[in-house]
Q: What sequence folds into this?
């Protein structure tokens, strides 16, 4: 073999060796990358990932946490009210109504903070901001009074909501969406005559009926007419004091003279047939 041929052969072997070494390094890097990916998947399962999914996951976690924080805060306010009795939420409503001197039905952040404190509940400004921003749906800087009362209303089972609606429909004989004194008198007069203050002679029947109507009406500013929402809010407060669904149903049917089987149940049965 000539010198030139030997030199070319050596160069080929050197090139081949270097190529093989590069292949090994590439394979090693690929293996490490694979391991890194496996580690990343493991981290993903543990919610400690980095990369393109991080922002979305963190955003989802923050949203879930915010929903949880709001629910916890509303529950705290609700429980504080209910600890003062079935009228606790209405009593808080009266406090806010007294602030509403211009009758715009709006509550500011400072008013919310001050009145919750007066009512025996202290919250940090951070918690109050979370609650306030949740209730200030239009971002106007004020909470709608009705929406606040609805948010604080204790949740009820559908069977209780149904019988409350049935009672309202019975009383609302004019079918105009409100209950007035004349309509209350028709269905509640017998109950009024059994009221302790009527029996003792302290109240007349008219005063007893007026007291009941006002207790159903918007706290602090009764207008003599009760809407379905006001009726529902009142009995939501009563509902938390009655554990048994059957007893609650029986109580509502007894007070308002409802049939033993609701019209809704009858209609549902007919539809099923």
A:
């Amino acid at each position: 073999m000539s010198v030139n041929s030997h030199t070319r052969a050596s160069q080929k072997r050197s090139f081949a060796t270097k190529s093989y070494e590069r292949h090994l390094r590439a394979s090693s890097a690929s293996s490490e990358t694979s391991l890194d990916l496996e580690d990343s998947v493991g981290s993903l399962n543990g919610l400690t990932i980095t990369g393109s999914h991080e922002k979305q996951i963190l955003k989802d976690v923050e949203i879930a946490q915010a929903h949880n924080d709001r629910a916890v805060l509303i529950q705290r306010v609700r429980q504080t009210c209910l600890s003062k009795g079935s009228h606790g939420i209405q009593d808080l409503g009266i406090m806010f109504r007294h602030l509403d001197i211009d009758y715009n039905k709006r509550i500011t952040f400072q008013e919310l903070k001050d009145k919750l404190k007066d009512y025996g509940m202290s919250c940090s400004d951070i918690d109050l901001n979370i609650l306030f921003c949740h209730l200030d749906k239009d971002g106007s800087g004020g909470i709608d009074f009705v929406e606040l009362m609805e948010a604080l209303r204790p949740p009820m089972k559908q069977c209780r909501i149904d019988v409350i609606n049935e009672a309202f429909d019975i009383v609302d004989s004019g079918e105009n969406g409100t209950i007035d004194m004349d309509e209350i008198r028709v269905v509640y007069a017998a109950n009024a005559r059994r009221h302790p203050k009527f029996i003792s002679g302290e109240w007349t029947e008219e005063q007893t009926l007026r007291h009941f109507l006002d207790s159903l009406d918007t706290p602090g500013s009764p207008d003599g007419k009760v809407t379905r929402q006001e009726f529902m809010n009142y009995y939501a407060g009563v509902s938390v004091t009655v554990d048994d669904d059957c007893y609650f149903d029986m109580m509502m049917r007894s007070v308002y003279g409802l049939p033993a089987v609701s019209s809704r149940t009858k209609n549902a049965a007919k539809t099923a047939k």
